User: Fold this.
Amino acid sequence: MKNGILFFLLLLSCVTFFGCKEKVEKKQLNNTEQMLLVLKEAFEKQKENPDLKGKLTFWRSQLANPKFSSDSVLSSKIHYNIAGVFYALNELDSIKYHMQIAWLLMENTNGYPEDRVMLYSGLGNVAHLEQKLHQENYYYNRGAQMLNADTTLQLSNKQKITIYFSAAQSCAKLRQFDNAFMLNRKAIALLPFLDHNPKDTFRAYSQMAWCFSASNQSLDSLYQYIKKMEKVSNVHPDHDKQRFVFDRKASYFIKREVKDSALIYGRKRLAMDLADAEENGLFAASIKTGNLYISQVDLAGIFTDLNQLDSAKFYLKKSEEFSKAYPNHIDDESLILYEQNRLNYFFASKNYVEAENEQNILSQRTKFLYETENARAIAEMGAIFQLQAKDKSINHLNETVLFSQAELQRNRFWLAISTLAFFLAIAVALLLYFIQRQRKLKSETERVLLEERLLRTQMEPHFIFNTLSALQSFIRFNENVKALKYLNQFGRLLRSSLESSRESLIKLSEEVETLGNYLSLQQMRYDDAFTYHINIDEAYYLDNICLPPMLIQPFVENAILHGINPNGKDGIITIDFEMLDDLFLVKIKDNGKGTSTIKKKEAHKSYSTAISKDRLAILAKDSGLTTSIDINIDENKGTLVVISIPIKLVSKFST
Assistant:
C-alpha cells in the first residue's frame, strides 16, 4: 500500500512537470502559427493587388519586421512569397535566390510539413524554368510523395491538385507513364471537392489524353478523354480549350490513320495558331511554345500521306521559314519530326538523291539528340545524388536535435524526482529499468538500420567505378560508337539504380530488369566474351515479390570476372530464381575454370561480395530467417553460387 502511494506521487510529479513543459512549448508553437495566419491573411490581400512592384515592396518590408525576422519559419514564408512575385515578373535569378533562402531557413526546422510540400513544389517550378527535367521531376515527386504519405496535411484541394498535375506532367516528359497515370488519377479524385473549376477539370482530361497518346496505349481511352475535353470546352468555351481539343483530335486521327479527319483538325489547329501569331506577334503563345511550327510540320506529314505533294511542300517550306525566324522556340524532338516528314516527302516524290541526303541529316540529328540527352541526364543525376545526400544529412541533424532535446528532458526529469528523496527509490528503480530497456531496444534497431543503409551506399560507388572504367577504356581507344551505346545503356541502368536507391525493398521485376541491363553492359565491355540467361518461373508474379536491391549483382560481377575468359567467346552465365517458402534461392552459374577462379580470389579481395555477405547477415537478424551463400567450384564445369535471400510479398509488406 505504501509503495503504491509512493508510485502515485512519482507519477503525479512527472505529469505536473511534463504538463508545464508541454504548455510552454504549445504557447511557443502557437505564436509561430498565429503569425503564419497573419502572413496568410496578408497574402490573400496582396493577391488582389495588380501592382507587382507594390507587392514586392510590401513583402520586402515584412522581412525587416522583428515579428517575422526572428523566426526562421516566418522568414522562410516571406522569402517564398517574394519568389512568387518574381515568378510573375519572370525573373529567374531572383526566383532561385529567394527559393534557396526559403529552403535553407526551413531545412533544419522540425514540423511544418505543409510548408515543406509547397517549397518542394516551388523548387520544382524553378527547375522547370531552367529546363532541368530530372531535378524538376525529383522536386515535384517529393512533394507528391509527402501528400501520399500524410493525408492530414492542411493544404487546399487546389494546391494538392496542382502538385499532382505538375508531378504527373514531369513524369510523362521522362516517359514514366505509370507514375504519370497514377498522379493524374489522384488529381482527378480530388476534383469533386473543388468549387466547380472547369480549368482544372479540363487540364486533367487533357493530361490523361496526352499520356495515352505519347505512350501509344489504348486509343479508345484516348478518344474517351478527348470527348470529355470537348464536353467541358462546349460548356465553358475559350481559345485555349478549343486549341487543345483540336490538337488532341489531330493526334488521335493521325494515329488511327484516318487522314481526312486528321487533315480537318490539323487545319483548324493551324488556323488558331496563325490567328494568334497575327494578333500578338512575337508574344503569341503559338510562337513562344513552337505550336505553330508543330502544326505546320504535322500538316506536311498528313499531305504527304494523302499524296498531295504540292501542299506538303508548301507546309515544309513554312516550317523551314519558322525555324529560321524563331530557332530558340523549337525543341529537338520537333526538329526530328520535321526531318522525318521531309524524308517521307522526298520518298513520295521519288527524289531519292535528296531522300538519301535527308536520311543522313536525320541520323546525325537523332544521334546528337541522344548524346545531348544522355549527357544532360548524367549531369542532372549527379545533382540529384547530391540532393539526396543533403537530405540524409538534414535527417541526421534532425535526429541529433531530437536526441539532444530528449537528453535535456531527462535531465529535468531527474531534477524533479530528486526532491522526492529515498521514499521514491523503488519507483525510480522501476522507471529507470523501463527507460533503459526501451532505449536499448531503440538503439539496437537504429543501429541495424544504419548498418544496412551504410553497406548499400558503399556498393553503389564500387559498381559505378567499375562501369566508368570500362567507358574510359572505350573513349581512350577512340571507339566512339561503342562508347555512345555503352553510355546509353549505362544511363538506363543508373536511372533504375537511382529509383531503387532510397528503397529498402524493390520488386523482383525491377531487380531482374536491372540485372539484365548490367549483364548487357558487361557483355559489351568484354566484346561478347560470354552469353547469359536469366530464368524465372512464369508462374511467379514478379511485382508481388520484394527483395533488397543490389544484392545479387556483386556475385554476377564475380562470375564475369572470375568465371569467363575475356579473350574467348564461349563464356556462359546462367541466373536461376526459385521460391522456397519465405526464402528466395538465386543460383548463379558460370562455365569458367575452378582453379583459375581460386587463384584470382586469392589475388583480389572482392569488397562488394563482402558487403553483400554483411547485408545478408543483417537481413537474417532482422527477419529471423537463415540466409546463406554456398560456393561450389568444379574445375571442369565452372562455379555455382547459391544465395538464400529473405523476401516479402507485397501484401505482407504493404501492411
